[in-house]
Each structure stands twice: as structure tokens, then as C-alpha cells.
Amino acid sequence: xxxxxxxxxxxxxxxxxxxxxxxxxxxxxxxxxxxxxxxxxxxxxxxxxxxxxxxxxxxxxxxxxxxxxxxxxxxxxxxxxxxxxxxxxxxxxxxxxxxxxxxxxxxxxxxxxxxxxxxxxxxxxxxxxxxxxxxxxxxxxxxxxxxxxxxxxxxxxxxxxxxxxxxxxxxxxxxxxxxxxxxxxxxxxxxxxxxxxxxxxxxxxxxxxxxxxxxxxxxxxxxxxxxxxxxxxxxxxxxxxxxxxxxxxxxxxxxxxxxxxxxxxxxxxxxxxxxxxxxxxxxxxxxxxxxxxxxxxxxxxxxxxxxxxxxxxxxxxxxxxxxxxxxxxxxxxxxxxxxxxxxxxxxxx
Length: 349
Prior knowledge:
Elements: H1 4-9, H2 16-28, H3 38-50, E1 60-67, H4 83-93, H5 97-105, E2 108-115, E3 126-127, H6 145-164, E4 169-175, H7 179-191, H8 195-198, H9 207-224, H10 231-238, H11 241-255, E5 260-262, H12 265-277, E6 285-287, H13 296-303, H14 319-337, H15 341-344
Parallel strand pairs: 1-2, 1-4, 2-3, 4-5, 5-6
Helix pairs in contact: 2-3, 3-14, 5-14, 6-10, 6-11, 7-9, 7-10, 7-12, 11-12, 12-13
């Protein structure tokens, strides 16, 4: 697909008839109807996404997009910006939490430099740098519209490349000091929610810095005047490169009829932008967990996602999404391996 419009026109609603067939199979299994709760919901949704009642995901991956944020110049993070490239190298060496949890569930980690403000080199790094970090959105647009669209297409194209390698289950992950500030701004504009209700503590800032962070988000919105009816305009003015890349991951997965598991606050900001660009893409999204970040519940509500897990996590990286892979696998095994009333000779209620 050559451009974003091509991608958007290729995203269709998930298949309701296959979901009905999946429901009929679920109701034939040796259990009271609906008794497996969200596992049944996942099984139905995944059937509708893939077009198969009993899909199997042989290869799954979390795509970790990394980018820096010029708004860090405003002192909105407890960690310095050099942590972004340091953590990228940690991902590549397999030492981060997302690496550990990905190994635990049998998933791969695809680490992408889409906008780190440093020159990085590693044999396993996917280098798709659009620019060396965003500009300071508190004084002007974070990036140009063209750069935002380019970053979205990086995500789309990467999903297509991986899908061609038989990956069929995706998760969103990210790294970028300052990205909770950009995500909060996106939620303010696209969700029409006040900064006081969207801005959280991110990496663990104190009360004084939290109030400052709220003011920075207000200033960024006032300075840039993002157009809420134009998601790319909002993304370019107050978003981030890694967020834009994840918008593309979501849209790319939807265009390839693959489930995409949404992680925490930053990933959900990308999901929100994707939902505004292509409302049908929400059907391909699976909410993994509700983060401790203040605005995440509102973000999930704005997208229309229900989280599976409440683990009091706020790390990012894709950690919550990777944990949810195991529940999707479990739902698949229920569909494939559980006996029906007829096959087990059990009287149906």
C-alpha cells in the first residue's frame, strides 16, 4: 500500500457471521453458556477478525516503537532523555521487562527506531528513523503533517512485512521519555477531556512537576490549535513519532485481518488516533490491561476498549499487551481442544 488513504480504504468491519459460528461452537462446549466470560468474548472477536472459528497463531510479536520528544525540554519527566536510546539497546540485548515477558509467552520483540534522538546501530534494530525526535510541542508543532503520515506508514509497512513472514498476532509497545505528555495532549483534543483529567505522573513525577506538566499540555494545545476533526493534524502537532508508528501498526494489522493487542496509555493514544482515522479498526483491537496512569481508563473508553487485566502496571514497552497474549492463546485452545456435549456424552442443560 503506497499511502495512508489506501490503507484506510482497505479496513473493513470484522466478520459477524464467523462470530456467530464461533458463538454456536462455544455454546456446544461442555460448560454453562457464557461461563468463561472474557475468554469467550476474545474467541468470538478473534474469529471475526481472522475469518476462522478456530484460528491458530503460530508466530506473534510485540512491535516496540522508540522515539524522543522535544517537550522534554520543559522538564516534564523524572528521567533524562538519554534513557530512550539506552533502553532501546536494553531491548535489543533482551534485558527489558518486555523481553522477559515475551519469552514467557513465546513471542518475538521487534524493536524499531522511528525517531530516537541518537544514532543507533545493532544487527537486530529495525531502523526506520523519520527524524531525530520531535520538536518541542509547547512552542510549536511536534512534527510536520508529512512526517506524521510517514511515521504512520512505517508502522503499516512493518506489519505487512511481518505478516508476510507468517506473523499473525501483534501487540503494541513503545519507548520514549516524555511520551505520556504527548499522549495526554492527544486525549485532551480527540477525547475532549481536560488536561487535569488526562495528565498523569508518567515516570513518577512529584506533585509540583505534575502541575507543571498539566500547564505544558495546556500551552501545547493553545499554541498549536490542533483540529480535532483531523486526526493527522492532531498527531503532527501534539503527538510523537513512536505514537504515529503505532497508529500504523494498528491500521496495518486491521488491513491484514490480524488481531492487535493494545498495551497501556501511550499505545492507547495511538489506538485512539487509529479509531478516528478508521472506525472499523477498533474491531481488530484487543484491550490488554488498564494502566495506573490517570488518563488510561478515559482513553480506553474513548476508543471503546475493555481491558482484560487490572495489574496496577504502568511500565509501557508492551508489557501488559504481551501478558494478554497468553489469554488469547487460552481462548484459542478452548475453541480447539474442549469437548462438546455431544462428543463427551454429557447431557446439555
